[in-house]
Amino acid sequence: MTSTSLEAAQVIVPTSRAEAVTAFGDGSHVTVLAGGTILMPEINYGRLRPERVLLLQNAGLSGIERNGSSMTIGAMTTVAELEQAPEPLGTAARNVADHEIRAQATLGGNLCAPAGGATPRGDLQAALIALGAQVKTTGKDGERNEPIEDFVAAGPHGRLLLEVELEEPRRSGSAAARRPHAHTYTILAVCAAETSAGVRVGVSGAGPSGMRARSVEDAFASGASAEEASRKVLDDAQPLDDALASAWYRQRLLPLLVRRALDDLGGGK
């Protein structure tokens, strides 16, 4: 592991997973730099002045491992590498920004990105919530696994994301509203997947982070049609105004996207 000084920040470059975990410690005063597509503009424009920067490019946290129907994806795996992942993750990855951004941006950066002030971030979150992904992190209390919806709701504070585990679904569906500009974020995205635990529905763009639409899932599991179940999404989500769209627009669009995702799932009863 090497350590150098970059302007006012100390830059630490671990060369293994163990070194990364040790350098991160409890996360105090540490800024984690993955692909840098979100973080570097914040630093360059002076909006963020980190004390210690942890560069993870050489820490051995990238790659995809398959074991039957299960997958383990390292936090430093690029979005481009996820373009052929099981649906709906593959579709979500292919629609992130443009090729240059996807080749640099990482899974971990996407999941740990805070809301961008005026816009939501984390275009992969709805897909991973629908897939029932589990995230493995480390921090002051050691390693732990938790559902991805819990992780993104709480934020990565004091936690270093190591990997994400998921199983290929039996079937899946998705629907989204996107802006035509390649570098903007998705307005709203809804993903549905049938896992071993049943049908799960994930939403991104309706709030600061992705969320699980449990009311939709419960209604659908109880026999409601896709149209009936889709109306329940506003029991879970409370869309906000931001630079991409108004809360009014999202409130009217979200049930329609949920219905399309459920119909795409093949479950429009």
Condensed summary:
The protein has helices at residues 17-24, 39-44, 89-94, 99-104, 107-112, 125-130, 148-154, 214-221, 226-230, 233-236, 247-265, and strands at residues 2-6, 9-13, 30-33, 52-55, 64-67, 70-74, 134-139, 144-147, 159-167, 171-177, 188-195, 198-204, 211-212. The protein is of the alpha+beta class and 269 residues long.
Which keywords apply here?
Enolase-like, domain 1; 11 helices; alpha+beta; globular; 13 strands; 269 residues; Uridine Diphospho-n-acetylenolpyruvylglucosamine Reductase, domain 2; five-stranded antiparallel beta sheet
- Give the strand content: 25-35%
The biggest beta sheet is recorded as: 5 strands, antiparallel
Q: How many strand units?
A: 13
Please name the CATH topology of one domain. Answer: Enolase-like, domain 1
Beginning-to-end CA distance, first to last residue: 56 Å
How does this structure look, described?
The protein has 269 residues and is of the alpha+beta class. Among the domains are: 1-59, 2-Layer Sandwich (Uridine Diphospho-n-acetylenolpyruvylglucosamine Reductase, domain 2); 171-265, CO dehydrogenase flavoprotein, C-terminal domain (Enolase-like, domain 1), CATH 3.30.390.50. The chain is 30% helix and 26% strand. The protein contains 11 helices and 13 strands. It has helices at 17-24, 39-44, 89-94, 99-104, 107-112, 125-130, 148-154, 214-221, 226-230, 233-236, 247-265; strands spanning 2-6, 9-13, 30-33, 52-55, 64-67, 70-74, 134-139, 144-147, 159-167, 171-177, 188-195, 198-204, 211-212. The strands form 3 sheets. It has a 5-stranded antiparallel beta sheet. Strands 1-2-4-3 form a 4-stranded mixed beta sheet, covered by helices on one side.
